[in-house]
Amino acid sequence: MLQQLQSRFTWDLQKEDMDMENLSTRLEEHIKLPLGRPGAVALSYSFLAYVRYLQNQPEEALSLLLQSEQKTRECYGEESERRLIVTYGDLAWLKYHTGYYLESQTYCQRVQDILKKYPSSSSTVLHPEVYGEQGWTYLKFSKSFYPKAIKCFINALEMQKDDSEWNAGYAIALFRTEWNKPEPSEKPEDSAAIKQLRQALEINPDDAVLLSMLSVKLGVYKKHEEAESLVEKALKTDPENPHVLRYIAKYLRNQGENDRSIDLLERALKRTSQSAFIHHQLGLCYKKKKIAEQSSKPYKKQMVQQLRHQCIQNLEKAVKIKPSFALARADLALMYGEDKDFDRAEEMFQHCFKMFPELPDESLRQVIHQRYAEFHFYHTKKPADAIDHYKKGVQLTPKTWEWKQCIKKLKKIADGRLSEDEDDSLAYALLAQVAKAEGDMEKAAEMFEKALDCDENNSEYLSALCELRMNLH
Prior knowledge:
Shape: globular
Structural class: mainly alpha
Number of helices: 23
Order of helices and strands: HHHHHHHHHHHHHHHHHHHHHHH
Strand content: under 5%
Oligomer: single chain
Radius of gyration: 26 Å
Low-confidence stretches: none
């Protein structure tokens, strides 16, 4: 009976997939700041209850689930029963795990009574409220669950296509998973996230979080006029919501308005001080200010050092709040390198490499390889290590900003070596690997042939050339 319940206990939410401390802190803040759509706080109580169960705090988990039930009834009134299917499932499992078997059965029976009262179309189809809660759970608990969240919201929308909550959830999930650096040929209409954000805003035009997310996406596609109008509307609608402020700050940083972005992020921190995302964004703002100062002639060395340290301080806070934040770690490690703190930089990068098995997608691994290559290229002056990690970067997700940077640097290194020695086999091999990554197999074969002309006994170049020729014919 328990195994058949729809519950966080049956949704394969593994402890090792989550950053428990950071998740706990964020959920506590969500409860303290009752933001978002109706019912969001009730969900936060349920989410935090499951976290407390995983942290071996069953009594607090029980208290939180009962508060979730109360908040759900207050929010939805007579419509609350289907919203309690998962909550009662969680209570049944929690009572079972704590040895209260009769009470566990009572909650199982409550679920059965609701399912009899509101039967679904078939035994394999869940209620949209269950799909929706499952979607929010996956969206909240870990980035690695985002694809599952998307499927859940799609299932909910198939049954209630105009529901504002499922449309918003689907839009947020797409926003978080869609790559934010499109190809020049791509248009806003090609973006599934933009299309869904517009759909969700048609249903609920005053959702400031969705407005701010859409402004970020439109800014990426250089649709600045519409993006600016969305920014103004979002700030007017919900001016103190930290989630709104952080997305608008990201939009402003992308447009080069670093001071405005910093002001908004500092405002957001006053309400949600334990946000790793906001500290990371602040770090990136100070880094952009530093780069802008360095590009001025002559630049002020003391100002550059001050901005670098402000960047480092915020990145350190982001990593302290969320130890699993791989992107912030890689950015921080590179800044340590720029600050000539090579030992701390190396230690931080090695920590990033140890995280590889846990990283949800290869684009994050690519970021770490690219940052580590830059560390050696610019700071330690170890070209062999830089080349090794640029090469690893180009073998991962194509067309990303990091991929393009790896391609660019490998070409630069190869051209520099050839200007000093036109018979440099490694330079030709690098150009071959670049051509292969760019999809030009004939040029790749030609470059490996030139590499072999310079180093005819190199088995690595010969093997790569043979493989290319087999694929070409």
